[in-house]
Amino acid sequence: MAKAPYTPNDVDTDAETTTIGKGRPTPSRREREQANRRPLVATGKEAQKAQRARLAEQRDRARVGLAAGEEKYLPARDKGPQRKWVRDHVDARFSVGEALIPVMLVIVLLSFFPNVTVQSISLIAIWGFFVLAIADCLLLGQRVQKKVTERFGMPEKGLRFYAAMRALQMKPMRLPKPQVKRGQFPA
To answer: Are 167 and 136 in contact (CB under 8 A)?
Structure first.
C-alpha cells in the first residue's frame, strides 16, 4: 500500500499529539520511597486472615513433607542419602528400644503394688531392660557403621547416634515416618 504524499497539515497534527520525553515529570526520591512503602505485617482483617491461611497452608505442607520424608522439608539432621539408608535400615528391624515405653509403663504400674518382692522384681526388670536396650543400640551402631562404610565409603559423623536414637523410638512415633516395612532392609 502506497503512502499518501506529505501535506503541511500532517506537521500540525503530529506536533499536537506527540510529546517530548515521557510526558510527566520525574518523581522525586521522596515520592518513590513513599510509593514503595508498605507494611511488613498485613493490615486489615481480611489481609491478616489471608496471611494466616497462607502460613497455615505452608506449615501443613511442610508437616506432610516431613512425614513423607521429602528431602527439602527434612531438618539438617535427617538430610542426605546416608541418613536415609540408616532410617530404612533401622525401620526394617525390630529394636528392643521400641518396647521401652510400654515396658516401662507396665513396670511403673507393678511398682505400685504394696508387695516388696514385686517392687524389687520390677526394679531389676527395668534395669535389665535398660541394659538390653543399650546393648542393642551399640550393636546396631556398629552394624550400621560397617554397612554404610561398605556402601558409601566414608560415613558421616554421628550415624551411630542417629541410628540409636531412631531405634529407641516407637515405630509409629518416628519422624520422618518409616518408608519400609519390617524385614525390608535397604540394598
So the answer is: yes
Backbone angles phi, psi at 19, to 5 degrees: -110, 150
Query: What pLDDT does 94 receive?
Result: 94
Name the stretches of the chain with pLDDT < 70.
1-19, 39-42
Reference 144, options 130, 158, 131; nearest CA is 158
**Biggest CA pair distance of the chain:** 121
* String of DSSP letters for 30-66: HHHHHHH---SS--SHHHHHHHHHHHHHHHHHHHHHH
Q: For residue 141, give the H/E element and its range.
A: helix 116-152
Q: At what angle do helices 116-152 and 100-110 cross, to 10 degrees?
A: 170
SS (H, E, C) 59-117: HHHHHHHHHHCCHHHCCHHHCCHHHHHHHHHHHHCCCHHHHHHHHHHHHHHHCCCCCHH
User: What does the pLDDT look like over 4-32, one tens digit per residue?
Assistant: 565 555 555 555 566 677 888 899 999 88
The one-letter amino acid at 164 = A
Output the pLDDT for position 127.
92
Q: Where do the structural domains in the chain lie, given as residue ranges?
A: 46-79, 80-173
The verdict on whether omega for the bond into residue 39 sits within 30 degrees of 0, i.e. cis, is no
